[in-house]
Structures are given as structure tokens and as C-alpha cells.
Amino acid sequence: MELLKERILKDGKSFDGGILKVDSFINHQMDPILMKAIASEFVKRFSDLNINKIVTIEASGIAPAIMVGLELELPVVFVKKAKPKTMSDMLATQVYSFTKDRTYDVCVSNKFLNENDNVIFIDDFLANGNAALGVKNLIDQAGANLLGMGFIIEKSFQEGRDRLLNENIRVESLVRVKTLGNDLIKFEE
Ligand code: 5GP
């Protein structure tokens, strides 16, 4: 997606250690016009599927996911990163965070995700695939059908895509970043 590549080159900040900061338009301050274009691109790429629900994970997946849900007029369920005391019937698993270097609980209510659901998962980044595989675990526990996963930015030098493909998951990334270094950002062709 050319518009997104241009914006990453203009406003993204890359760091040694393979971290890309996009907090002026995705992760902290958000650009709703860009987010709308991102959602339309996801809708186009998944247009062959019969989806009835969008799944994402808090917090940064919520904005793109709700824009996709708006365009498709479908409900959006976000996986929570802490188990609410007031909710029973929660499905739970654990995820290791690459950026925070710690493991955390993720959960979703069986009320909002079950065997009647055909879902796509939308998130901001695909790095090592831990968040995505954690969500897949919850989707499997719920008995729902996972039709594909969409990421705004994939870091193709990390192993996420291969791990998801190994699980036979369809992966759609709007841009694929090949190299990140101090002030260096290169995309896959
Ligand atoms: P994974 O679980 O695939 O290793 O990492 C995905 C999650 O980590 C994403 O949801 C995102 O929040 C965060 N993440 C991974 N790499 C980056 C990065 O380079 N920049 C930012 N802003 N977040 C990242």
C-alpha cells in the first residue's frame, strides 16, 4: 500500500533492535483518514470471504478493526489483555510481548466469540506472531472459524509470517518492512 509506505518513510522512526515507531499516526496520535484507507484496503483484500465478525486485540488493533467493522457493517470483538473480575465464561491464554519483554494474560468472552463465527483478525504489527497465535488459540477454544489475519505493518525479518503460514493461516500485510536500522527503513518489493 503506497500511501502507507510514504507515510512510514515520512513520519516513522526506526531503531536498532528492529523497532519501528509509528506513534504520530497509528500507535498514539491517530490519523483517521489514513486509518479509513487502511480499512478499505483490508476490506478489498478479504472481499472473497464470508465474514460475520472482526476480531482484534487491545489497544492498537482496535482503531483499524473498528474501521473495517464500520465499512463491512459487522461487529468487532477485541481480545482483552487482563481478565475482568466481573466476567465469567472467559476463554484465556498467555502471550509473550516482544516490545515489552514480558508474558501477559489475554482473554475473550465465549458470549462474543463462538462456533457460529467466521472471523478475520486485524492488528497493527506482525513481528514474531505471538499476539496473533495467542488470539488464534482463543478463536480455536471458542470453536470459531478463523478465515485470515490482516496486519497494517509486517516486519518480514521476524518469524511471524512463517509461524502463521505453518498454522495454515492466510496472512495479508499492507506493508512488509524488510530492514530497520538507525534511520533506515526498507520495504519488500
Ligand atoms: P508479535 O506478537 O507479532 O511478536 O508482536 C506484535 C505486537 O507487538 C503488535 O501488536 C505490536 O503492538 C507490538 N510490536 C511488535 N513490533 C513492533 C514495532 O516494531 N513497533 C511497534 N510500535 N509495535 C510493535
Q: Your description of this structure?
A:
With 189 residues, the chain is α/β, with parallel strands linked by helices. It has a single domain (32-176), classed as Rossmann fold (3-Layer(aba) Sandwich). Helix content is 29%, strand content 35%. The chain is built from 5 helices and 10 strands, in the order H-E-E-H-E-H-E-E-E-E-H-E-H-E-E. It has helices at residues 2-11, 32-45, 62-72, 130-142, 160-166; strands at 13-15, 19-21, 53-57, 76-79, 90-97, 102-109, 118-126, 145-155, 171-181, 184-187. A 6-stranded mixed β-sheet has the order 4-3-7-8-9-10, with helices on both faces. A two-stranded antiparallel ribbon has the order 1-2. A hairpin with a 2-residue loop joins strand 9 (171-181) and strand 10. Helix 2 crosses helix 3. The longest helix has 14 residues, at 32-45. The radius of gyration is 16 Å and the shape is globular. The N and C termini lie close together (11 Å). The model has no long low-confidence stretch (mean pLDDT 95). Bound molecules: guanosine-5'-monophosphate. Guanosine-5'-monophosphate binds at residues 19-22, 27, 60, 98-99, 123-132, 155, 160. 5-phospho-alpha-D-ribose 1-diphosphate binds at residues 127-131. It is found in: Cytoplasm. Converts the preformed base xanthine, a product of nucleic acid breakdown, to xanthosine 5'-monophosphate (XMP), so it can be reused for RNA or DNA synthesis. Pathway: Purine metabolism; XMP biosynthesis via salvage pathway; XMP from xanthine: step 1/1. Its EC number is 2.4.2.22.
